[in-house]
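In this supplementary section we document a worked example of the pipeline. Step one takes a protein sequence of length 191 as its only input; no multiple sequence alignment statistics are reported here. Step two produces a three-dimensional model, which step three serialises into structure tokens for compact storage. The input and output of this example are shown verbatim.
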Amino acid sequence: DLILYKQLQAGEIDSYSMDKRYIKPDQSIVWVSMTVSRLNLLERAVFSHICLIQDITEQKLMLQQLKRDMAVSSAFINSSRDIIFLKDENLRHIFANHVLAEYLDVDIETIIGKTDIELMDADSAEYCRHSDLKVINTNSVVNAIRKVNNQVYEIRKFPVPLGSSKTGVGAYIRDITREYQQRQTINTISE
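The serialised model returned by step three reads:
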């Protein structure tokens, strides 16, 4: 704070902004957003400045709560053995769990913000895109069973309201290969 103020005073910068935390006499915490700007007064040759302060305590508290909620959600999502993800209205991944990352052989950060065509082969990406658009266009759940190589997956995609009249696509995708093979064996024996 003092370094920036001295740079402002020396004319090296015209302004600076920062968030600061203050502790009030009752020990409660107040967060402020502070913007300090150089003030050039024609009739005065001395340094002057103006400081605008906005109380952002409520926003900081909401952000802290959001971070806690995201940590809890992440713990639940990543404890599943199913592939779990959420895409925005443009079919870009908003979040994904570690199972999807392992399936695609990338880290989670690589998935976020990308569409399926950027992450997988063209045929698989087109299949996913088709079912995603069906979810958005019909605003309903889409269930499917899909074989990929030697694996069989149960797919459940569903609409997720994202605000501002936008709808995303959420999904749970479970590897049901063993169950599928057992059913096939039972059907073969029954015949």
